[in-house]
Amino acid sequence: MPRSCCPRCARPLSHCLCALVPRLSSRTRVLILQHPAEASHALNTARLAALALSNGELRVGETFPGLAAELAHGTYRRCLLFPGAQAMPLAELAQDGRPLQLIVPDGTWRKARRILHVNPSLAALPRVALPEGLQSRYRLRKAPMAGALSTLEAIVCALNILEGDARFDAMLRPFEALIEGQIAAMGEAVYRRNHAGGPER
Fold first, then answer.
1. What was the pLDDT predicted at 199?
2. Which of 67, 81, 89, 76 is closest to 28 using CA atoms?
3. pLDDT more than 90, % of the chain
4. Domain count, the chain
5. Alpha carbon 1 to chain centroid distance?
6. For a Cys staple, 80 with which of 125, 148, 158, 178, CB 3.0–4.6 Å?
7. For residue 169, is it within any domain?
8. Whose CA is closest to 77, among 51, 113, 102?
9. Residues 17-51: pLDDT tens digits?
10. Looking at the domain assignment, is residue 13 inside a domain?
11. What is the pTM of this model?
12. Is 163 in contact with 100 (CB distance < 8 Å)?
């Protein structure tokens, strides 16, 4: 029999994270475009990010009808948070007075690139990148490259750069609880053997 889940955070009721999720306002609008394969994942950090931001939105899909027309109108300066040779350091936008909409693909690198490939209006957006040398707290997945962060961590880092250092760190509380809960469920020995790289104790 399937476990009952919280309709808000989608976690099992016994592990609901809603009490830890803050509600924060931001001048920057955040639009997360999540690949469908990530939506039911136990470690769905994009959903936590969207719940925490009053000016945030999560959309699930591979293609997003109507998005191209939406991106062509409005007062926001729109940027894609995604690395690339032409990506601008995000800190350079912190000095820009115009309101910003940050669009964040969510999925594995391959799936995120797929979202860009099938949505040309996204691929055409100017790209921004986070600083180099960042370290993820995501201890349950091996980073595919140096400096790779979970979606929630990347959004927190981006908003802190744009709107004030540490202002959005409260979003990391449910993320840390999520990781700790997964480690507890698998057991310390299994975690150390498969994720921590250390000897069993």
1. 34
2. 76
3. 57
4. 1
5. 31
6. 125
7. yes
8. 102
9. 999 999 999 999 999 999 999 988 877 899 999 99
10. no
11. 0.85
12. no
Tokens 């989608």, located at residue: 10
Contact 179, 140 (CB under 8 A): yes
Angle formed by the axes of helices 151-163 and 45-52, nearest 10°: 30
Q: Compute the distance between CA of residue 184 and CA of residue 181 in angstroms, rounded to an integer.
A: 5
- Considering only CA atoms, which of 125, 6, 154 is closest in space to residue 64? 125
Which structural domain, as residue segments, surrounds residue 56?
Answer: 22-194
Residue 143 has phi, psi (to 5 degrees) of: -65, 135
Length in residues, the chain: 201
Check which CATH number belongs to the domain holding 179 and give it: 3.40.1280
Rg (CA), the chain: 17
Q: Do the domain assignments include residue 17?
A: no
| Distance in angstroms (rounded) separating the CA atoms of residues 151 and 140 | 14
Which tokens hold the place of 175?
Answer: 């993320």
Tokens 């924060």 -> residue:
24
Phi, psi of 127 (to 5 degrees): -100, 145
Determine the pLDDT at residue 2: 62
CA 63 to chain centre: 18
Positions of E strands within the chain: 29-34, 56-60, 77-81, 88-89, 100-106, 127-129
Which three-class secondary structure state does DSSP give residue 16? coil
pLDDT of the residue at 21: 96
